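Why does residue order matter? Because the sequence determines the fold. Keep that principle in mind as you read this record.
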Amino acid sequence: MADDIILAAETGRPTGSPASRRLRASGKVPAVIYGRGAEPAVISVDWRELRGALTTDKGLNALLTLKVGNKRTKAIVKELQRHPVRRDVLHVDFLAVDVDKPITTDVPLLIEGEPEKVLREQGVVEQILNMLIVSAKPDDIPGHIAVDVSDLEIGQHITVGDVELPEGVTTEIDPEETIVTAKLTSLALAEEEEEEEAEEAEGEEAAEGEAAAGAEPGEAGSPQGGGEGGE
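Structure:
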């Protein structure tokens, strides 16, 4: 198990938008904790401590210990609400968990490696799937899952089944689901079409030249000379 990340929490915060704004102005974040059959509890946490807790290699999937007075509860961040413009954290939903039982959550899929073959052909790697729903014990949930595109070529793709999941992590997502695909850019496609058209034009000109060179005298123009002349 990873090092224990302890996050102090306080209960009894006032609810409502004005109260939440005042709370955030004081450096705290409104939150709620639920799960394991208990009623949701309204709490608040210190923003700096929360930021520090979520900047490990596990990211938002870090296993936390919420400390409320003398009570400690294992939890993960289930949802982090941010301001759409400023990106400030507005509210946090914590999910209480049993460390010995698997839970289902989203894990980011991050592209790694340099797709040299794709770039050489003026191609681009397009990511279709950004998150993967996985099941694992809380402490086994990774911060992200790497998708290596180093060997990718134009026309190829990487599916869920191609990615090796960490030990103890499973997914119910269709293994044929595409994560990334490699294709030509619009510029490269246009250049390819121009080359094909030029080759077709050259082929047609060559065919016409061969046909003209192989024609018998008199076949390409008007009849020459007469037939039988009069005496």
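The two ends are 119 Å apart (CA to CA).
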